[in-house]
Amino acid sequence: MPFHLYEGPLGASHQPRFLKAKRFSGAQMLAGLKRVVKRLSHAWPDTWCIFRGDSHFAYPEVMAWIEAQAHLSSVTGLTSNAVLQKLAHEVIEQGQAGLGALG
After folding, report:
1. CB–CB of 26/61 below 8 Å?
2. In a 10 Å sphere around its CB, with 0-12 CB exposed, 13-18 middle and 19+ buried, how is residue 7 labelled?
3. What is the DSSP letter of 70?
4. Over the range 37-67, which residues count as b (16 or more CB within 10 Å of their CB) and which as e?
5. pLDDT of 71-101, one tens digit each?
6. What distance in Å separates the CA atoms of residue 33 and residue 83, rounded to the nearest whole number?
7. Scanning 13, 55, 68, 90, which has its CA 20 to 30 A from the CA of 83?
């Protein structure tokens, strides 16, 4: 089931508040994510969690920490740029060819 964290009271004052008007630093985002994952893992130890964030959540330290966790993955929306377009070019062409085959 999706579990979303938004700005606003989430119970105890020590819980993280994501999606504030100001941008968190990578260290702040990682600290908040670690607290949430610790609580979720304690409550549901065999559950796989997927962190979904826009590009401003994709700090290197956050992504590296997520990749090192056994039951945690990430999906990050990234703003398009020339490097990503080049890397995705072949996949996009394959997808467009597949759609064309559907008629």
Report:
1. yes
2. exposed
3. T
4. beeebeeeeeeebebebeeebbbeebbebbe
5. 899 988 878 889 888 888 988 888 888 877 6
6. 28
7. 68
In what helix (H) or strand (E) does residue 74 lie, and over which residues does it extend?
strand 72-76
| N-terminal to C-terminal alpha carbon distance within the chain | 35
Placement of tokens 């994510």 in the chain: 33
Phi and psi at 53, nearest 5°, equal -145, 155
Q: Which two tokens stand for residue 103?
A: 């008629």
Closest CA to 47 of 63, 66, 65, 70: 70
